[in-house]
Design a protein that fits this description.
377 residues; alpha/beta; 2 domains; DNA polymerase, domain 1; 14% strand; 16 helices; disordered N terminus; 9 strands; binds S-adenosylmethionine; 42% helix
C-alpha cells in the first residue's frame, strides 16, 4: 500500500506537516541527543556506512544519479555543523551527499515545489543525522521566507530544470516521447498548464514563448500551426502537440538538431513554471542569506539559465565600475564575491558516458567575500 504524505511525515518524525494548496511547509524536528531514533545501534551503524561511501556516489536508496555531484561537493565543501540550502531538492541526490557531510550538528533546508519531492524528502529525513526542514513552494518565495526568518546559511545551491522523476512520470506531460495530457506543472496545484497556453494564448504570445524560452527558429510557423489546428480540434496531449510542431517545420528542420519538439517543449515548460522569473528573483535572495565565506552554486542545463547564473555571480564579483576613461577609481566598489572557478565546470567524459542527461550541464559557483580584497580570484 502506498503511504500518504501525512503518514510518511509521521513516520519520518516530522512536525508541522500541513497539506492543501501550496506553499506547504514541512518543518522537521531538530535532532538532539534525546532523539529516540538516533539511539538505535542499527541506525548508527547504517549512518556510519553511509558516511563511508565515496564522494559523489549517491546512496543505494536513491535511484536517481545527481549531475556533477562530485564537482558540486568539492565546490561547496560542506563541513560538520554548517547550514545548507538545497533550493531544488528533486530526488534528493545532491542533498543526501551534502547532508552526510553536515553531520548531526548541521542543518539541511530543502526546497521544492513538487509534492513528489516532498515524499522523497521524508525518506531522506528518516535516514539522515542532521537537522532537516522542507519547504514546498517556489524557491523564490521560500528564500524570501527564510530571509524574513533571519536564517543564515553557509551554502545554497540550485540544480535547475526538471527532475528525472518528473520527466519519467509520463502522465505529467513533460516528455515529448510519451503520450500524456499536456500539463508540465511542477506544482500540480498551480492553475496554468501547457494545455492552457496552447489552447488559449494568442498566436503572437505563443510565438514569443517559443522564441524567448526555446530559442526556436521556427517559432512563428509553429505558433501559426497551433492556432490553425486548435480551431479544428483541441491540442491537449503531448503527442498531438508533437504532430502539430512537426507539421509546422520545414522538412530539413524536422530531421536536424535532435527531436523537432525539444525546443518547444522546453519553452512551454519554462513558461508554465515561470522558471526564469523564479531564478531572477531567487539568486539575490539566496546570496543575501549567505554568511561571509558562504558558497552559492548553480547547475544549469540550457543557456538561458546558465547566462543568468553567470551574470549574477559575475556582478557580485565585479569591482570598480568607473568609466574606463577615468584615470583613478572614484566609485570605491569592491568585489563581493570570488568566482570559483572562473569558468563553468562541465561533466567529465565518464559522467557523460554513464548519464547522457548530464550532457548540457554547466556548474558555476562563487564565494561571498567578507572583505573586499580577500580571495579576489
Ligand atoms: C534537476 S531537479 C533537482 C534534482 C536534485 N538535485 C537531485 O539530485 O535529485 C530540479 C528540481 O527543482 C524543482 N524546481 C524547479 N524550479 C523550481 C522552483 N522555481 N521552485 C521550487 N522548486 C523548483 C523541480 O520540481 C525539480 O524537482
Amino acid at each position: 500500500m502506498p503511504m500518504t504524505l501525512p503518514e510518511i511525515a509521521r513516520r519520518a518524525g516530522m512536525e508541522g506537516f500541513t497539506s492543501g494548496r501550496s506553499p506547504i511547509v514541512v518543518q522537521a524536528r531538530r535532532k538532539g541527543p534525546g532523539d529516540a531514533g538516533r539511539g538505535s545501534s542499527a541506525r548508527r551503524a547504517a549512518r556510519a556506512r553511509t558516511a563511508q561511501r565515496l564522494d559523489g556516489e549517491a546512496s543505494a536508496s536513491c535511484a536517481h544519479t545527481p549531475v556533477l555531484a562530485r564537482e558540486l561537493l568539492e565546490l561547496l565543501d560542506p563541513q560538520p555543523g554548517q547550514t545548507a540550502i538545497d533550493c531544488t531538492f528533486g530526488d534528493g541526490g545532491h542533498a543526501r551527499l551534502v547532508a552526510q557531510r553536515l553531520g548531526p550538528a548541521g542543518t539541511l533546508i530543502a526546497i521544492d515545489r513538487d509534492p513528489l519531492a516532498q515524499e522523497r524528502f521524508a525518506a531522506l529525513a528518516a535516514e539522515t543525522a542532521c537537522s532537516v526542514r522542507f519547504i514546498r513552494s517556489g524557491y523564490a518565495e521560500a528564500l524570501a521566507r527564510l530571509a524574513d526568518e533571519g536564517v543564515r546559511a553557509d551554502m545554497a545551491y540550485f540544480d535547475l530544470g526538471m527532475s528525472s522523476m518528473q520527466v519519467d512520470t509520463r502522465e505529467r506531460g513533460f516528455s515529448y516521447s510519451y503520450d500524456a495530457p499536456l500539463d508540465m506543472r511542477m506544482d500540480p496545484a498551480q492553475e496554468l498548464t501547457a494545455r492552457q497556453i496552447v489552447a488559449e494564448w494568442d498566436e503572437r504570445r505563443i510565438a514569443q514563448v517559443l522564441r524567448d524560452y526555446g530559442e526556436e527558429r521556427h517559432a512563428g510557423a509553429i505558433a501559426r500551426e497551433i492556432v490553425r489546428r486548435r480551431a479544428q480540434t483541441p491540442i491537449d496531449t503531448t503527442l498531438a502537440l508533437v504532430d502539430t510542431i512537426k507539421d509546422a517545420l520545414p522538412a530539413p528542420a524536422r530531421f536536424a538538431g535532435g527531436h523537432p519538439a525539444k525546443r518547444s517543449f522546453q519553452a512551454l515548460r519554462i513558461a508554465v513554471n515561470d522558471e526564469l522569473g523564479q531564478l531572477d528573483r531567487a539568486l539575490p535572495l539566496a546570496w543575501g542569506l549567505l554568511r561571509d565565506g558562504g558558497m552559492l552554486a548553480g547547475i544549469a542545463f540550457h543557456s538561458l539559465e546558465d547566462r543568468r547564473v553567470k551574470r549574477f555571480l559575475g556582478e557580485q564579483a565585479r569591482g570598480c565600475i568607473c568609466p574606463p576613461d577615468l584615470p583613478i577609481c572614484v566609485c570605491g566598489r569592491e568585489p563581493a564575491a570570488a568566482l570559483i572557478p572562473r569558468r563553468a565546470i562541465v561533466p567529465s567524459a565518464d559522467e557523460l558516458a554513464s548519464n547522457p542527461r548530464a550532457g548540457s550541464a554547466r556548474l558555476r559557483g562563487a564565494r561571498k567575500l567578507s572583505t573586499a580584497h580577500q580571495e579576489n580570484a
